[in-house]
Amino acid sequence: MQTWIGGEGIFLLAGKLFGESWRTAGEFGGYPWTQWLSFLLFWLIEMAIIARGMEALRRFENWAAPFVIVGALALLVWITVKAGGLGPLLDQPSRLGWGGGFWKVFFPALMGMIGFWSTLSLNIPDFTRFGGSQRAQIRGQALGLPTTMTLFAFLSVLVTSGSEAVYGAPVWDPIQLAATMENPVGILFALLTVLVATLSVNIAANVVSPAYDLANLLPRFVTFRTGALITGVVGIVILPWRLISDPHVYIFTWLGVVGGLLGTVGGVLIADYWALRRTRLRLAELYRPGGAYWYAAGWNWRAVTALLVGGVLAVGGSYSTVDADGAKQGPFPADGLIPVLKPLADYGWAVGLTAAAVVYVGLSGVFGRGSGEAGEG
């Protein structure tokens, strides 16, 4: 989906350069063939960067991060000037207020955003293992993630509010907002910023982890680069243009389900490492078949059971909303897959994490932790 967004940026950028004929080219599959070409080009750029390895990615991220921050601040300055000052950006009223209508939207959206970032919460060791010390990786995360995410959330709200003040309707998509600019230099800079931002986030968050997973799953046949290529192909096969076309499907279905399932994984990991083992592990045994953590033929049935229970509770109630005309928005039944679990669906990530952790600790307390109980350190 991020690659489709990046391709859209190239499509609009090229449209500003090549004129109306680029944007109105013959359609294929519901989109101009030039947009498909832009999508493919962005995909190839991503694959070219990741194919050069983690060191090339580190160098790219080092200059991309400050560039994107500068670009976002420049976008805020532009919309502020266009709106006539900060006042119009700050006085846009809430359409939902603080009543029941707000909370019905807030919690599913919150769970969707947590689900969006829960990938990095699980695969952050793919990056922190390159840190020089434990203090270095803690400092990097503490300074880098909360500060930048808070800043970008603040900038996003202000810029979107400013777009409503200027255009009469909120434009939340930065690509679409950049396309409204009249100055060619400003347009190019804004769209370049969006492209760099999408590249840096997408590769780090969505390509590195599965590439390592595939390489570790079949190390004799799959390298890190091959794993990245397989990931890129899978990213096309899931038809991202269809997933992102409807916000109901994207936020409430896709992110809700994925976030709920990833929450169960996080719950088991947290319970095992922090609650039961108190951060003490026999490191070498983690990599030995038949070793202390081999459990039952390589399977920890307590963890698998906790994943299943947490997963069912987290996503079993997934449902599709119904619009004013009675049309269902999404692939699930309006009453939920398992109707009795529907009230839990809006809190999928939190439900999955909590349920999996509780079940895993409970099973471990009753049946023991299995392998690796003694001598950990």
TrEMBL record:
InterPro entries in UniProt: Pur-cyt_permease (IPR001248), Uracil/uridine/allantoin_perm (IPR045225)
Compartment annotation: Membrane
Key word Mitochondrion present: no
Cellular component GO terms held in the UniProt record: plasma membrane
Main location per the UniProt record: membrane
Membrane topology recorded in Swiss-Prot or TrEMBL: Multi-pass membrane protein
Top-level lineage group: Bacteria
Keyword field: Membrane, Transmembrane, Transmembrane helix
GO MF terms held by the record: nucleobase transmembrane transporter activity
Regions crossing the membrane: 33-51, 63-81, 101-122, 143-167, 187-209, 221-243, 249-271, 292-315, 347-367
Protein family (similarity comment): Belongs to the purine-cytosine permease (2.A.39) family.
Protein name (record): Nitrate reductase
Organism, as annotated: Kitasatospora xanthocidica
